[in-house]
Every structure is written in C-alpha cells, then in structure tokens.
Amino acid sequence: MHLKEREREIWACAFCNSMCRHVCTVAMSAKLESTQPKGKGMIEYSILKGESEFSESAVERMYMCVDCGRCRVWCITGISDCSRNVQAGRADVVELGKAPKPILKWGDNALMYKSLYEVPVEERFRKVKGLLELEGGADTLYFVGCTTAQHQPEIAEAALKILKSIGDKVAVAKGEVCCGYPLWVAGFTETAKQLAEENVETLKSLNLKRLVTSCPECYLALKEHYREWGVPLDLEVFHIAEYLDKREFKLKSSKKLSMSVVYHDPCHLGRRAGVYDEPRRLLAAIPGLKLGEIHWNRENSLCCGGGGGLQVTYPELSKTICNKALAAAREAGAEALVTACPFCKQMFLERARDFNLKVYDISELLA
Question: Do 142 and 83 share a structural domain?
C-alpha cells in the first residue's frame, strides 16, 4: 500500500489546524473542506486505519489536486506535502483499477504511444520546425517533452534557436519518450519508471555533456525523480532559463521589445525547484521590456490549473483556477504574461483573450 509509505506525513495533515487551507489552489476554488490538504489527509488516514476505503467520493478527492506545492510552503509542521500524500493515494487507486477514465486514458497512451497523447513515437516531433538530427559532436541535448512537442512546438523552435546562437552543438534524441512525471503524479508509478528507464538508456548511448529542457516537469523528473525511482541519469540537467543564466546569455540584437510584462512562476520550476531569479534576470536584460511583478509571485505564485491531471479530470475547476492567475496578472497592469512552462502557456493561452493579455514562453521573447 503506497499510503503506508507516507503515514507520518498523512497523520500530520489529518491532525493539523490547517493553515494551508487559506492557500490551497483547489480548495480556494472548489470551496469544499474535503478538498483541503487536511480534508484529504483525514480521508487517507481513515483508509490507512481500515475505517474506510477508496469510495467514489474519496477517489474524486484524490484527483482534485494540481500538484502545485503551495501547501508545502505554508505547512506549519514543516514535514508534509499534501500533493505527495495524494500521489501515494493515487498509486493505490490505480492499482485498485478505480482511477477516473481520463487518467486511465493517460495510462493507456503511455503504454501504446510512450506519451500523454495519442501520437506514435516516430511522429511525436513532427510539429517542431527545423528539428535537429542527432549527429556526432553534439554536447547539449534539448529534451523536447510531450506537451511542448504536441501543443507548444514554437517553444522548442525558440529554444533550439537560442542554444545554437550561443555556440552549443545541440541536438534532440529521436528515441525520447515521455519523462514519466505526469504518469507518476497520476498514480502510474511503474509506468513512470519504465519510461524513465527508456530515456536513461537512450541518453546513455549519446555521450553528451548536458541536457536542457523547457518543461519544468521534465526538468524535475530528469534531475531529481529519476534518482528517487532508482533510475539515475548521469548527466547535468538544466531548465533553459537556468542554463542561459548560468552561461551569462547576452542578447545579440539591440531590437527593443516595448512591452509591459509580468513573469509567472510555474509551480514546478519555482516552488519545487527554487528557480526564481534566473528567468527574471533574462527578461530584465531585454531592451525596452518593462518587467513587473504579480502580487502572488515566487513561492506564493498562483497555479495555472494545469497540473496533476486536473485539466482532464475536472476541466471547469481547472479553468476557474487559471482565471484567478490571469486576473492577478491583469491587475498588475501587464500587456503580456510570460511564463517558463508549456503546460502553463497552454492553459493561459486558452483563456487570455478574456483578460486582454498576450501570453509568451520566456524562450519566445528571448529568441
């Protein structure tokens, strides 16, 4: 039982006075006590103690989480992370065959297509223009990621352009499959590990110095979670914003972008990985760009609503959460919202028109 592995943390949530209820992304929008970290903790604790089981309503609560990590920032006990407790519960739910249909579809796609989406492996990069072939001498691998490849190919195109402009010999791996992180969060722990093993096997054979990606979920999986899952990747791993900052990236053009923007901290790049200053330094160096701040920023950043599978299990709730983040950006007086995550960009793009906002990935502005 996966819940058993986190009994101490679940106990802490179940018997806490729930300070994090004030910032829980889902609870603030759903307005239900059972969606708070404490509520989920009580459900899980009662299951652990054999007093209840994963009923239909309990399963619903397990999948009403965006894996944003805001609860961890506000945890007064300092030991719990509700989204990790939820992931353990989801793993049990998957093993019981009780996961919601959209989540089961993710599992089926992962087995058949090695991706979240129904696209054959050999066609997964077809939307990305000018994709590089892997050839001898490459030192930097750009890990594209499922969502970037299928929904935000322009992010990959911009990133590859930038990496080549700084002199990196860059390529992509045709054998790349899903990083596994969304599957792991959804409860498919073994499937996630299998995907990790495939990626590690592919990357081992390429003799590269480093891996760069635009997706914070891919970044976290490759850098940290593969090791947790027993499939370590012996390679330096960077998010592109982190890597360009480390390389002291300088713009080669003096072209001005006369625009007022705010930067949105993606949950998995900010709260989970601690990358806050690097994207801001890069944006501040763009001539003409006026960089402002959203009131809820950095470790308190508002989630886009696209994490944890919520966008497929509870799409209306996901949109409500997204609207709150867009409203906060609009209140900051920005013309455009800039983020550094393909999931966030995709969520914001679908609703930005209602808030009179443009949406960009950081690589697009830099390119």
Answer: no
Domain boundaries, position 125: 115-246
Q: How far is CA 60 from CA 181, 274, 349, in A?
A: 21, 30, 27
DSSP reduced 3-state for 336: strand
> Are residues 204 and 238 part of one domain?
yes
Domain C-terminal end among 214, 246, 278: 246
pLDDT for res 1: 60
The DSSP 8-state label assigned to residue 77 in this structure reads S
Strand, coil or helix: 206 = coil
Please state, in angstroms and rounded to a whole number, the distance separating the CA atoms of residues 185 and 93. 12
> How do residues 237-269 score in pLDDT, each as one tens digit?
999 999 999 998 888 777 888 999 999 999 999
Instruction: Write a three-state SS string for 299-334.
Output: HHCCCCCCCCCHHHHCHHHHHHHHHHHHHHHHHCCC
Residue 109 covered by a domain? no
CA distances from 122 to 177, 203, 205, 364, 366 (A): 10, 17, 19, 26, 30
With 0.85 as the threshold, say if the pTM is over it. yes
Return the pLDDT at 136.
Answer: 67
- CA–CA distance, 84 with 95 (Å, rounded to integer): 17
Give Rg (Cα) of the chain: 20
pLDDT digits (tens, 9 = 90+) for 294-327: 999 999 999 999 999 999 999 999 999 999 999 9
DSSP count for the chain of H helices, then E strands: 19, 8
Q: How far is CA 92 from CA 54, 97, 228, in A?
A: 9, 9, 18
